[in-house]
Design brief:
Elements (H helix, E strand, L loop, with lengths): L6 E9 L4 H8 L4 H9 L2 E9 L4 E8 L4 H10 L1 H11 L2 E2 L16 E2 L11
Antiparallel strand pairs: 1-3, 1-4, 1-5, 2-3
């Protein structure tokens, strides 16, 4: 379902094959503070999917705010989110040259270009 006035985002990252079980377990019980930070940043309809043949994580989300960069900076400043990223970043390998981890100057997850969208009738 479409959210009015939203920006759709799709990103990818490689999941280390040795970390699949741990990654799934921690995402089965995401810390409430991390979810609250996303909600404060106007992120909705967020999901992460895993494609085992390529050890690929694909995330999709919708942003409903008015200043994406500012809201993402606030997420990056959240102490609980920083602890979460410290745990999960070690399970991942970025496709972005120069990336050193979530919340840094260089994005950790690679943005994926949308090439087609069909909203359908609501």
């Amino acid at each position: 379902m479409s959210v009015p006035h939203s920006k759709r985002i799709c990103q990818i990252i490689k999941l280390k094959s040795s970390a699949v079980t741990e990654y799934k377990e921690c995402h089965a019980a995401v810390w409430p503070g991390v979810l609250a930070a996303l909600e404060r940043a106007h992120i909705v309809d967020y999901s992460i999917n895993y494609y085992p043949p390529l050890d690929l994580l694909v995330t999709t989300m919708k942003y409903t705010g008015t200043d994406y960069e500012s809201d993402m900076a606030k997420v990056a400043e959240d102490p609980e989110t920083q602890r979460w990223w410290k745990m999960t970043d070690g399970m991942q390998e970025s496709f972005v040259d120069g990336a050193t981890g979530s919340g840094g100057e260089t994005p950790w997850w690679a943005n994926v270009e949308e090439v087609f969208r069909f909203e359908g009738k609501l």
